[in-house]
Write a structure and sequence with these properties.
The protein contains 9 helices and no strands. Helix 3 packs antiparallel against helix 7 and helix 4 packs antiparallel against helix 6. Helices cover about 80% and strands about 0% of the residues. The protein has about 240 residues and is an all-alpha fold. The chain has a domain of about 130 residues.
């Protein structure tokens, strides 16, 4: 089968859905990390709190509390990285046995499609999961760098290197968190891409739903209001 024949298996709606998926994923990620000053995202607001955290660490004795928090953050990245690996293996196994999907399509009264269509759609899911895995692994490593920088912060606050090194640790922590968030967004869109198995309209609706969910949590959620205003969360 030639490339043209392969592309002819997909409708214009499939192309529109895939294009919307890529634009939404890249565009929303850029918007979250580069919002306007008048409406910062949760990601940007948390960056300021991370800087404050490292400033407080300089005078905190002992620093076991800080080490515990960082350890929990690293465990989160390791958990999601492992989850992505398992999911990638499962989807790849399904790509090698698309007869099951064909049977499900018949059960749902969907038109039977060539195996290539299922494989292409699932490969897009694998790409998102792989991107998420790489981001989680990198975030884990950056949190490790942050741990070293935190350990290098002098205990003596009169030391001229105390706050500069704490600032370095804060920026490293922020970069790790941003990569962790990028990995989470990849998982969101991987789940949304699974709707493509039901057809291009389902993909379009899923992309819109996932994009709205991510936008809402970053720009219009109660946690964002708490971070911005300093109010305590209600019980």
């Amino acid at each position: 089968m030639t490339l043209f024949d392969s592309l002819s298996l997909f409708s214009p709606f499939d192309g529109a859905g895939l294009l919307l998926l890529l634009i939404s994923w890249l565009g929303l990620s850029w918007w979250i990390e580069h919002p306007g000053a008048s409406r910062p995202s949760v990601t940007v607001l948390m960056a300021d709190y991370r800087r404050d955290w490292m400033k407080e660490m300089v005078t905190r004795e002992p620093r076991i509390f800080d080490a515990t928090i960082l350890s929990n953050l690293r465990q989160g990245t390791a958990f999601f990285a492992s989850g992505c690996m398992i999911a990638i293996g499962g989807v790849l196994a399904l790509i090698g046995n698309t007869e099951q999907l064909s049977g499900v399509a018949v059960d749902f009264s969907l038109q039977e499609r060539p195996a290539l269509i299922w494989q292409v759609k699932l490969m897009v899911v694998v790409l998102f999961l792989t991107h998420g895995f790489l981001k989680f692994v990198w975030a884990n490593r950056l949190f490790g760098y942050c741990a070293v920088l935190m350990a290098a912060v002098p205990n003596d606050i009169s030391n001229s290197q105390a706050y500069p090194r704490a600032a370095q640790a804060a920026e490293m922590n922020i970069r790790a968190a941003w990569n962790f968030n990028r990995g989470l967004r990849s998982i969101y869109y991987a789940l949304g891409t699974l709707a493509w198995l039901l057809g291009p309209i389902a993909l379009l609706l899923a992309v819109c739903a996932v994009s709205w969910l991510i936008w809402d949590r970053e720009f219009s959620s109660r946690p964002r209001e708490i971070l911005q205003s300093g109010l305590r969360s209600e019980p």
